[in-house]
Amino acid sequence: MKHCNRKKRIIPWILVLCAVSFSACGKQPVKLTSTNTAMGTVVQYVVYTKDTKVAEEAVLDLQAKLERLEKEVLSRRVESSQVGVINAHADSQAGVPVEQELYGYLQEIQEIAIESDGALDVTLGEIITLWDLDSLAMSDSKEQQFLMLPEAEALEWALQNTGYEKVVLEEEKIYLPEGMSLDLGAVGKGIACDRISKELEACKEIEGAVISVGGSVVTYGTKWDKSPWNVAIVHPRKEGAYLGTLSVNGTCYISTSGDYERFVEKDGKRYHHIMNPHTGYPADSGLCSVTVVSDNGLLSDALSTACFVLGAEEGIKLVEHYGADALFVTVEQELVMTDGMKKLFKENK
Ligand code: ADP
Ligand code: MG
């Protein structure tokens, strides 16, 4: 059995300053780069600034905010997080009060669940727990490399306890039926990107930035030479290689979902972490990766997951409904793109 996860190595905290141009007064733009981990993945910061001290502090502050976002709001593994508390109180007849920001996210997520016909469904916590593919793919422990396919009965139970249509959001409260649990893994990194761009707007000393939280990237502002931001898209089948580059201007959100990030192979079959909520099995729609570009982080992240489940044909309809663009890589390594994406993407040949 093959075991793979590219994110598992924790990269130590590095803070590097690269002078882009030099001047005696020290007020020319510099590029600040740093790498850390948050939200269960690698976070890479590239920031263009004329005031390095302020930018350094801003990056440290962003990092602390991402860690808090995970711990206090989104992580279902932390009992005291907002999502943890909701899950612990499933079946509360009185509903569970939800803080305004998370309530807004849940409303957006619910709308995308409806539009995607349940391809995005954040109520599949029980299915995720049953497979436990994330920890299996991330584990170094030999014993854990043996993937047990779920028993039919257990899968049936998990499927019965899944379904966005069973959730009610009303007056800033959520009503989650007993046995169900939320998992916001499909949108968390996109939400993080939304938060990052808001924070950057408040920091006038930062003129431009490209920040990636795992497979979700936010570009912000302008580069010192006013050239577009180039974001490399990982090749889903050639480790360490790039499929091509996306060129975008200003603030933009780019999310990629793929079957190569966290997976386990058994008997020649790949079991990855993006599930089809209708079958309870890893999605099998003929794709190995989907990249979505839009003007909203949560949306790009949600759509990349939903499109991965839907496949290229239905996925294109969904992204076009939201005015977003997408690049699909099929298992045969063919590229399918929306018209807008054709203008942004340059393939590495
Ligand atoms: P990544 O986490 O690698 O960026 P995604 O954004 O596609 O990838 O999210 C995958 C995560 O979302 C899974 O690890 C799981 O927690 C959750 N998930 C898997 N399938 C779905 C789905 N169909 N709808 C909603 N959430 C999902
Ligand atoms: Mg996603």
Can you tell me about this structure?
- This protein is α+β, with helices and mostly antiparallel strands and 349 residues long.
- The protein has a domain at 82-175: T-fold (Orthogonal Bundle).
- Helix content is 32%, strand content 30%.
- The protein has ten helices and 20 strands.
- A nine-stranded antiparallel sheet has the order 2-3-4-8-9-12-17-18-19.
- Strand 18 (325-330) and strand 19 (335-337) form a beta hairpin.
- Helix 7 (188-201) runs antiparallel to helix 8.
- The model is unreliable at 1-25 (pLDDT under 50).
- Adenosine-5'-diphosphate binds at residues 119-122, 124, 128, 134, 183, 185-186, 189, 214-215, 257, 261, 273-275, 277, 301, 304-305, 309.
The main sheet comes to: 9 strands, antiparallel
CATH superfamily of the domain at 82-175: ApbE-like superfamily
For the record, the CATH architecture of the domain at 82-175 stands as: Orthogonal Bundle
**What is the average per-residue confidence, as pLDDT, rounded to a whole number?**
90
Q: Major sheet: order of its strands?
A: 2-3-4-8-9-12-17-18-19
**Radius of gyration over C-alpha positions, nearest whole angstrom:** 20 Å
Q: Which CATH first-tier class of the domain at 82-175 would you pick?
A: Mainly Alpha
Order of helices and strands: EEEEHHEHHHHEEHEEEEEEEEEEHHEEHE
Dominant shape: globular
* CA-CA gap between termini: 32 Å
Distinct small molecules bound, one entry per kind: adenosine-5'-diphosphate, magnesium ion
Number of helices: 10
Low-pLDDT runs: 1-25
Strand content of the residues, in percent? 25-35%
The CATH topology of the domain at 82-175 is what? T-fold
Q: How many E-type strands? A: 20
- Percent of residues in helices comes to 25-40%
Structural class determined from secondary elements: alpha+beta
